Amino acid sequence: MKIYTRSGDNGYSSIRGGTKLPKYSMIFELLGDLDELNSILGLSIAYIRDDDIREVLRGIQKKIFDVGIEIQKIETKQLIDKEIISEGDIRYLEESIDSYVGDIEIKEFILPGGSTASCYLHLARAVCRRAERKLVKYLENKNAKSNLVPYLNRLSDLLYALAIYINLKCQVKEKKV
Predict the structure, then answer these.
(1) Which of 74, 80, 116, 128 registers the highest number of CB atoms within 10 A of its CB?
(2) Owning domain of residue 114
(3) Considering just the CA atoms, what is the radius of gyration of the chain in Å?
């Protein structure tokens, strides 16, 4: 099977289910942000030495694909009998945040930086926030109940927490505003 299909050469692309839309459609902007987020997470994993954190992030990478699937189902108005992103997925992110930085008191803004892994996690957090903003705009008139916004919101919090935790583990002092 070849990687190229030439099907998008006319400025249209298909989403799950075969619906063709212009490549400038909001859904592709959003899916592109999720793809960028997933790629940055892959880059982050390459610099993280903690196997547990790497495994958490790999699981999140898979969930980001699920987020994209759910968005495409909303676009095509497919009934979602069971949401792909559940409240349990959101709780998992919250529990992960608590386990990594539960006792760390953060009173000031922290400048993104420190170790390479932390820098990439901060970048992933910023892209996650952008995807969240676009998702809110995208869902504005869709009349769809979804856990997607809280999931991305919590995910950006987890990425921030992991960036702080990794700097702490690497004994890199955070720079505060």
Answers:
(1) 128
(2) 14-169
(3) 18
Structure tokens at 7: 């099907």
73 within domain boundaries: yes
Instruction: In whole angstroms, give the CA distance from residue 10 to residue 75.
Output: 21
Of 97 and 109, more confident: 97
Q: Where are the alpha helices (DSSP H) in the chain?
A: 26-47, 51-75, 87-101, 116-139, 148-169
- Express each pLDDT in 127-175 by its tens digit: 999 999 999 999 998 877 789 999 999 999 999 999 999 999 988 887 7
At 26 the pLDDT is 92
Q: What is the CATH number of the domain that holds 67?
A: 1.20.1200.10
DSSP per-residue string spanning 133-159: HHHHHHHTTT----SHHHHHHHHHHHH
Domain-located, residue 129: yes
Average pLDDT over residues 63-90: 87
**Surface-to-core class of residue 174, CB atoms within 10 Å of its CB (0-12 exposed, 13-18 middle, 19+ buried):** middle
In the chain, the amino acid numbered 53 is I
In whole angstroms, what is the distance from residue 26 CA to residue 134 CA? 8
pLDDT band at 79; cut points 50, 70, 90:
low
Q: Considering its fold, how many domains does the chain have in total?
A: 1
Is 5 part of a structural domain of the chain?
no
